[in-house]
Amino acid sequence: xxxxxYSEQSAEFVMLDSTAxxxxxxMGRGGSTEGSVSxxxxxxxxxxxxxxxxxxxxxxxxxxxxxxxxxxxEDDGWDDDEDSDEPKxxxxxxxxxxxxxxxxxxxxxxxxxxxxxx
Length: 118
What we know:
The protein is of the alpha+beta class. It has three helices and four strands, in the order ββαβααβ. It has one domain (1-60, 95-118). It has helices at 17-27, 39-62, 92-108, and strands spanning 2-7, 10-16, 35-38, 112-117. It has a four-stranded antiparallel beta sheet. Strand 1 and strand 2 form a beta hairpin. Helix 1 (17-27) packs across helix 2 and helix 2 packs antiparallel against helix 3. The chain is globular. The chain starts with a strand and ends with a strand.
């Protein structure tokens, strides 16, 4: 299922419900596929989301996935997986960026952000 985010200050966008729920939980608004945030709650939700993402990034940098010695190769500048059909991991911070931007714009304009299933 997709979740669509709306605000008068930003373009709407959709995201998979699993990612949306993860981000909404970080904002303190998890557990519901439909809702809204405005006013002081919007600023608080934005602060919670940004600080939680920063903590997750710090943890990921402290314990990067280590490759076995056989898997480690010198970088020859050639990307063998460029044409691979394997999906590449997308950082949570990258997935969160449209929502963070929307929340910031809504906060600055004293607006709102709404979300619901699409």
